[in-house]
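Quick one before lunch.
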Amino acid sequence: MIDPAAARVFDAIIIGAGFSGLYQLHKLRDDLGLDVRVLEKGDGIGGTWHWNRYPGARCDSESYYYCYSFNREIEQEWEWTERYPEHPEIRRYLHFVADRLDLMRDIQLSTTVTGAAFDGATNLWTVETQAGERFEARFLITAVGCLSTANVPTFKGLESFKGAWHHTGAWPHQGVDFAGKRVGQIGTGSTGIQAAPVIAAQAAHLTVFQRTANYSIPARNGPMTAQDQRQIKQSYPEIWRKARAGTNGHPFDMPNRKALSVPDDEREAIYEQAWQRGGLRFRASFSDVLADMAANETASDFIRRKIAQVVRDPVVAERLTPRDHGFATKRPPIDSDYFETFNRENVLLVDLKSEPIIEITERGVRTSERDHELDIIVFATGFDALTGPLIALNIHGENGLPLKQAWSGGPRTYLGLQTPGFPNLFTITGPGSPSVLCNMPIAIEQHVDWVTDCIRHMREQGLERIEAAPDAAEKWVAHVNEAANATLLPMAASSWYLGANVPGKPRVFMPYAGGFARYAGICDDVADHGYRGFVLSRREQGR
Ligand code: N01
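Model of the 3-acetylpyridine adenine dinucleotide complex:
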């Protein structure tokens, strides 16, 4: 148990200074007048964008809507330079916001939370850090992101490797010099697909170790023109309205047309147009791409044919062609010349399904077929998503209940915002909310606004404790499953949405797939009905 002696007292502690933590600080401090402290592990703000500095790292959402919508001045003043912002530009943007709102004075950098415990007698959280500091607060808000716990597979022999190795999610800030180096990259998710073309262009040789072939849509990145900027800035009210009215928090109209309701040539033309336009909007070509297997197959088949057209060696093309899952049932990557990269002389594709990794040796990667000599290994092997960053905080709820134990069979939350047994703990974009299925800033703003309104309500009513009722959480988990099962999303056996990428992790579909607009409506309705499903109490009613 954490000893609360000598704790510094705040109204709220926020863990994490990415998009969520910055906005949550602003709302609680500047709207509600609370005394708030943000604890951030990194030596800078930015969250995922602080850590993910791998070659090619840029956002897959378009810059003009991968940003905050809550402040008109910030929205109008900030100028994005590219269609998809690269990681340094996103950090610059977040610094611009932090400076504008004077946030840094309440953010404590280089501070790793090592534990948090709830005291049911006082209804307070105590938070402990690696440096031995203690904080006490009524509210604990996690803003740690969904993809912040790196998954480095336990390959036999990694410790013997004489070269350098790096996980993309903890990339050295000084960069990695690939010039003249033989590089091995393990993993072909969104990250690996962004990184491989850039590494191949710099390194002497790149070997890509692929376990599951992936679909990818060209990003078609390019500069933002002054005319684009003007038009976007004039249209922001409509952009945000559309983003909030949709399924994924992107400001696209979802057409009503179904894939098989149009003639073959028309469908092909629609996909071709979406392919040429580039980006995640390809997914919105038809309304039923993620709802109907036959419709999905038309999109999958289109991309498979594109791969065959782009990749010159038919054997390599076939290895790169996904056949075990449908398009977008895993998070769809977007790319800049990914498939083209395999036409380069200095790139080799290793299909781990037919040639598995046996071990890592001091000289490289040994597969069942041969030794691949390498100077650098890049692990683009993803994250212990959604639950991983929260469990890593070592949180103990009422009566010492560890979060890890409460979620041993998979996350059990109410609305993704709270977990029974963990009063006054709010999880921004927690499992059971749209989170990673949504353009993140939209999902974040909705959660932060809801939490802020809830805390305002509690203070106005003299309440000091809120907790998700177990039966409300049970029903919500059932609804999360039902929403996922109404889509094709749970069908991709290797998806991190299901926790399938981490050995031993419970296979549970974690994000809420019922759509952002529907979810936000449910949250509003819960609040409008006296926070239905939550138990709110004053101290004397608390235990
Ligand atoms: O991780 P992933 P990611 N041996 O889990 C493979 C977001 N993101 O970092 O598919 C061999 O998708 C694994 O293989 P398999 C986005 O939401 C956003 O790429 O499990 N291979 C897979 O190929 C994204 O979805 C942006 O069979 C192993 C890869 O490693 C999420 O982050 C950019 C292995 C991991 O793919 C995660 O993407 C990038 C093993 N033991 C990412 N273990 C932007 O918007 C895993 N793999 C900017």
